[in-house]
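Q: Here's a chain of 244 amino acids. Please give me its 3D structure as tokens.
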Amino acid sequence: MSVVIVMKEIFNKKILIVDDETELLKLLKNCLLREGFYHIYTASTCAEASIIQHENNIALFVLDVNLPDGSGFDLYRDFKAVTDSPAIFLTARGEDSDRVYGLGLGADDYIVKPFLMKEFALRVLAVLKRTYKINGETVCIQLSDRKIDLDNAVVNTPTGETALTAKEVMLLRKLNENKNRIVTNDALCLAVWGDDYYGYENTLMVHIRRLREKTEANPSKPRHIITAKGLGYKLVIENEKNDY
């Protein structure tokens, strides 16, 4: 199956977004439409969402936790009684207890407001690919004894599997597109945070450090994600000499 066919299947999946913030609902819908998704449904209450779910074969639920007529948690529990479709919780709540509770219900992701539209779209795509396991060409990177599956956002190591965050996937994609070549700090920040990337260099360093912890056998002496001092970073594939 070609990549084009695979992506068409993904983009044809029906997505229901439930949030009582009218402007945010419009932004989220337009974001996914721009990314290429065709079937986006929206609702601002649990009652509206239940009607849409009953009338359509929804492939992914994006649910706000606090809704005018109930809880996104309770709504998802009702949906799970009739469908196995995955869910992403979208909420202003950032407490660990809420996140653990939502994930404990079986949700696939939990995004705390505010967030970037680009990150939202990437997480939606990652959940759909992971859930429906559509066969096709995948983007994998082999780093020594670790295999990185970018499509499913995981690192396979000799001791098990480690999940990647959306921003980590974005960084790895950009580095892999330019493998064995230096990618500037500005280019990496732009790829992850968009046009408003100024001031994110320190945050970039934190993400790189966490990436090394997941992808390097010895994060303090990295062999693959190499710092180019004063410039940026380079993803070294195979046995290229480390000059930095």
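Q: Can you summarize the key feature?
A: The first strand starts at residue 14 and ends at 18.
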